[in-house]
Amino acid sequence: MPTPSSTKTTFMLPEQSTVLEFDAIKLKLASPDDIHEWSHGEVVKPETINYRTQKPEKDGLFCEKIFGPSKDWECYCGKYKRIRYKGVVCDKCGVEVTRAVVRRERMGHIDLAAPVSHIWFLRGIPSKIGLVLDLGVQALEKVIYFASFVITHVDEAARKETIEQIQTELKTKRKQIDNEFNQRAQEINNRKAKSLSQGESANKVEKQIEKELIDLNVAKIDKLQTLEEAAETALKELKELHELQIISETKYQDLSMRYGHVFEASIGAEAVRELLLTAELSQEYVVPAGSAEVEHPEPLQGFDQMSPVELSFISANASPVPQ
Length: 323
Hints:
Layout: E1 9-12, E2 19-22, H1 32-38, E3 39-42, H2 64-67, E4 107-109, H3 119-123, H4 128-133, H5 137-144, E5 148-154, H6 156-197, H7 202-240, E6 246-248, H8 249-259, E7 263-266, H9 269-278, H10 308-315
Parallel strand pairs: 3-4
Antiparallel strand pairs: 1-2, 5-6, 5-7
């Protein structure tokens, strides 16, 4: 009995008389642009066969305009029949007159109204999207299922400017608090002098004034401490903002109200798409334009640390998303 390695597969194209012989097939990733190039049309309806006419539905999953005629040398509407019209595209139904076997090889495509994430690339082991973005599956699921936001961009210039603004505002408010409490302390001392001039007991006045000054000092310390804590929290939040950070909806609303000019965040598969658009594969391994194959005459430093997804995209000279 012949083994797969000892047999040779033959394949004949429907429009050719020559026979193609091959021993093996190599599979690699196809870019979305390649898929659009191979496609013969967009599928816009989920229907397959019309239950009355038993013919493929137009613009459906079996559409003859996209995939080819269901009968040899006959268009969908029947205007053109037989081989003498070979290659003619019907001006009424838009179906090319050719062999029905082309339906086995022609491809269509679907353009989505909004980005979605395929379960194979999200929950596969290992997660292909997680490998590219260096994120865990649980974190990705929170974003894709609209439970959490992910930061897609941080404006470093705006962050630096905001930090400087907070520090300047902190100094200004410190001075305001100092001036306010110094003025109130001066008013207490003036009241002390007035009380003594009216003949009140010096001991009693001293105790009362001392208590008021102590309470005033405690209030000043508390107010300064509250100010310092608020500034420290704001600076910490600003410094901790980074791309791929997962934040809850409540925190997103809070941060966007105060620092909406500093960062951008998104949710759902659209957010993952934005991150993939900005994801940079290892630059030292990027295939030069026009190169069909990747050649590594010598082992590259760090090549073994690349993820399988990076290797696949680089070897196929493809991008994770359409450009």
